[in-house]
Design goal:
This protein has 524 residues and is mostly helical. The protein is built from 20 helices and 7 strands.
């Protein structure tokens, strides 16, 4: 075998092994993630799918959603949305492809095959990365597209952009904005990059990168995100901006540490701080050279510190892990090259990797122990859920048990609600996915009683799925307390058989018109 083919074969085997491990780790026939985004993506994909029949639960989601469309559209085209296991496997496959693209980008930066492979293993072995693999969300596709843009741009710088390959970078930038709204940071960075570097046909590249965003905005996408930001800073002004940035920076650091360790204390803080300092040095180094990755990371961080929803911070940050580690490696290499060749340089390099390994390896060991340790016999099959990896095992079991009972309750909705029925819920995508019934958002708690009741009547929905857990915008069992006489409780789910055990959910209904009772929203 030739010397040229041997490394390629080794890489193919290595990435195949990494892919097999990730598929084993994350592929599941369950969802067990109740934030709502996973279910929403699946419903949009099923609504768009050419492979399935009409579904009341998915009907209309694609036309009503303001989520960027590319991730669910690709799921729909490939048929991955038709089953939960297929959706998990599809998303994990894209994540593993992102690892391969990261390797290509690291190589294009001159980091060498061995160092690039070690960096990919570090990315794949970071807690935030492998926990992301348990979800059905758009981050893996967004990460893959941003890395394609970085690798293709670097190749263009080095070799010149000729033929179709010269349009890979702007196409990836445009596609990234159709995957996550945060892709706007990549678009802005790429336009600045083109203005500074002035490559051949730069104006046309800018058009190719920008048209997808303009088209998406034109058809109504992103309107909610833009409205939220405008209203926040229009009403609060500079004070709101300062308060948000200060709060987001604190959250950013806490969530960044959490991507590396479930309990980030002691050595973890020291090592992650060192990696961050090196990455900032690499950022400044590459920024001086007008590199796209530096412009992008700077724009991306600026975007997330003004975004007034700290609950989304971990999802924002997880896609920066490969870029941060790459920039840290560049800065470390620059520093090592200033040392005289010999043992000192080698020992420093070994020390840097040992420091990172001292964080990643124990976390992997803890995760493996929890994974193979299982839970109770009833919950042992549910270990492929991020809920199972809470640092407190007792809390993890309780949370996972609650989630499993909630999943059962959602599936039973179809036994009570007719196929043409409609359900109010604070998590309508979950009802749509598990019960295959049309579901809409319950009018929020901020709506006064009279318009609340009028909106309920206007919607024509008779059913309410009430969850005994609070969300960012609703109290537990909302809006049960807003009706007098009370809603009819049709199906009550608890953690156990004991009628005094913790409540999980209630499927309730407006009283039948035949009863003559007309519930009115109560005054509060």
């Amino acid at each position: 075998m030739s010397e040229r083919r041997t490394p390629l074969a080794a890489l193919a085997v290595g990435f195949a092994a990494l892919g097999a491990f990730y598929l084993y780790w994350g592929t599941s026939t369950r969802l067990l993630s109740f934030g709502g985004d996973n279910a929403t993506y699946l419903l949009i994909a099923r609504d768009l799918s050419p492979f399935g029949g009409h579904s009341p639960g998915a009907a209309g989601y694609a036309s009503q959603s303001y989520y960027p469309p590319l991730y669910p559209a690709v799921m729909a085209i490939t048929g991955a949305a038709q089953a939960l296991a297929a959706a998990h496997a599809f998303t994990i496959t894209i994540l593993v492809a992102a690892f391969a693209i990261a390797f290509a980008w690291y190589r294009s930066l001159g980091l060498g095959s061995i160092l690039s492979a070690l960096l990919v293993l570090a990315v794949a072995g970071t807690r935030g990365t492998y926990m992301t693999a348990l979800e059905i969300e758009s981050e893996p596709l967004y990460l893959a597209l941003t890395l394609v843009a970085l690798a293709a741009t670097r190749r263009d710088e080095r070799d010149g952009a000729y033929g179709w390959r010269g349009w890979l970078a702007p196409s990836a930038v445009g596609a990234a904005t159709l995957t996550r709204s945060a892709g706007l940071a990549m678009l802005v960075a790429y336009l600045v990059y083109l203005a500074v570097r002035r490559p051949r046909l730069g104006w046309l590249r800018a058009v190719v990168a920008t048209v997808p965003t303009l088209a998406w905005v034109r058809v109504g996408g992103n309107s909610d995100y833009g409205r939220i930001l405008v209203e926040r800073y229009r009403d609060g002004g500079l004070t709101a901006l300062v308060e948000t940035v200060a709060s987001q920076l604190a959250t950013l650091w806490a969530e960044w540490l959490g991507l590396f360790a479930v309990e980030p204390v002691g050595l973890v803080v020291v090592v992650v701080s060192g990696v961050t300092v090196l990455a900032l040095a690499g950022l400044l180094l590459r920024l001086r050279r007008g590199a796209l990755e530096a412009l992008y990371l700077g724009a991306y961080l600026a975007l997330i510190v003004i975004w007034p929803f700290p609950g989304e911070m971990a999802r924002f940050l997880v896609v920066t892990i490969p870029i941060v580690l790459g920039l840290a490696a560049l800065a470390a290499r620059e520093g090592l090259e200033r040392l005289p060749p010999g043992r000192a340089r080698a020992w420093v390099a070994v020390g840097l990797w040992a420091g990172l390994g001292s964080v990643l390896v124990p976390q992997l060991a803890l995760t493996a122990a929890r994974f193979h340790g299982g839970a109770t016999p009833e919950l042992g099959a549910l270990r492929r859920s991020a809920l199972w990896y809470d640092p407190d095992r007792v809390t993890a079991e309780k949370t996972l048990h609650f989630a499993a009972r909630l999943e059962d309750a959602l599936a039973r909705v179809a036994e009570h609600v007719p196929r043409n029925g409609c359900v109010f819920s604070v998590k309508p995508s979950l009802v749509g996915l598990f019960a295959d019934r049309r579901a809409i958002y319950t009018p929020p708690a901020s709506v006064a009683d009279e318009p609340f009741h009028a909106e309920v009547e206007r919607a024509g929905c008779r059913w309410f799925f009430l969850i005994a857990a609070g969300t960012q915008s609703a109290a537990p069992l909302y809006p049960r307390d807003r009706f007098e006489p009370p809603l009819d409780e049709v199906d009550v789910t608890r953690m156990g058989e004991d009628p005094e055990s913790r409540l999980v959910s209630i499927l309730a209904a407006l009283p039948s018109p035949a009863s003559g009772a007309q519930p009115l929203a109560t005054s509060r």
